[in-house]
Amino acid sequence: MDMHFDVIVIGAGPGGYIAAIRAAQLGMKVACVDAWKNKDGKPAPGGTCNNIGCIPSKALLQSSENFEQAKHHFGTHGISTGDLRMDVTTMLERKNQVVKSSNEGILYLFRKNKVQFFNGLASFTRTVDGGFEVSVAADEAVTLVGKQIIVATGSNVRPLPNLPFDERVVLSNDGALDIAAVPDRLAVIGAGVIGLELGSVWRRLGADVTILEGLPSFLPIVDQAIAKEAKKAFDKQGLKIELGAKVREVNATEAGVTIHYTDSQGQTQSLQADKVIVAIGRVPNTEGLNPAAVGLQLDERGAVLVDDECRTSVPGIWAIGDVVRGPMLAHKAEEEGVAVAERIAGQHGHVDFNTIPNVIYTSPEIAWVGRTEQQLKEQGTAYRIGSFPFMANGRARALGDTPGLVKVIADPATDEILGVHVVGPQASELVAEAVIAMAFKASSEDIARICFAHPTLSETFKEASLAVDKRALNF
Ligand code: FAD
Ligand code: NAI
Question: Which positions are annotated as active-site residues?
Answer without folding.
Answer: 454
